[in-house]
Structure prediction request, 210 residues.
Amino acid sequence: MYWSNFLHIYQPPTQTEKIVRKVTEESYRAVVRVLKEAPNGRITLNINAVLTEQLAKYGLDDIIQGLRELAQRRQIEFTRSAMYHPILPLIPRDEVTRQIKLNTNVNQRYFGEIYNPTGFFPPEMCYSYEVANTVAGLGFRRMIVDELSFDGKTGSAKYDRLYRVEGLGDFLVFFKERPFSAGITYGRYPSAEPFLRACLSNLESAIIQS
Prediction:
């Protein structure tokens, strides 16, 4: 069984310095610390460049440096996104492209050459074929989307196979598992043990059904 741990960190451009500092202390520093203490740990991470700019503006450079070091150690795989976290299916294609390129340029300025992802995170995981077509056209190889994008229901996408978007060659999509994601978010799994039990139970159910 493989579990791909994807984290997304972002603050809106109107966020106050007080909140950015509070979230940094309670969350971002914990992520960096835990990964440094567990050198075999691996995650995929999206950081919108608007947050990167805020971290630099408020002197929170230890987070930028820590993420860069973890990426260099191959403990973090970055994804790219859109600069200001817009809902991509609702904005013009030219603006989608502009937001993605701006996000890339800003993050490369702070993270350097290590920031060169081939995976893409659409804000809020909002999907449309037009967005996938644009992202593939910019050279991305894969993107993560909500499992509702498969057929509008949870539990329909199979996790023992790879999915390609029709008409876009080898461009892949990976689906977020809503129940597990929500369980982590809302405290259903306060530690690794109940989370692993839930994963194994789900795997056993999938084997029986197949």
